[in-house]
Design a protein that fits this description.
Blueprint (H helix, E strand, L loop, with lengths): L6 H11 L3 H13 L5 H19 L3 H15 L11 H17 L28
Length: 131
Amino acid sequence: MTAGADPRLREGIALYNHHRFFECHEVLERLWLDTTGPAKDFYKGLIQAAVAFHHWSKGNPAGAKTLARSAAGYLKRYPPDYLGVDVGRFVAQFAELFQWLRRHRHAYDAHLVPTIQWAASASRPAPRKRR
């Protein structure tokens, strides 16, 4: 599952799952800068997801919601198990949480943050085109 993944992706996901969102952003940004091709926007979506939670945890729900919308837009274009990441599950949980937050004012709660999990099998097809 994670054996073929770039070590920076593994590290970024581990940091995200430990709610170290700023550090996750820093690690994934270095990977994003070194990447060309279809994976570049995938990393950008993960970075924006981490920064959305960073903003929420720092009391900036408006910034969090803006970045969440952008992150979901990038990530939903990818297959459910892109680069070994369970993108389908994460995007569904991420979108559901931010839809709920748009309707309710709620202070940051670490228990609500969805984890990023590794998929059972990895794939590398190109992302779907935006409509």
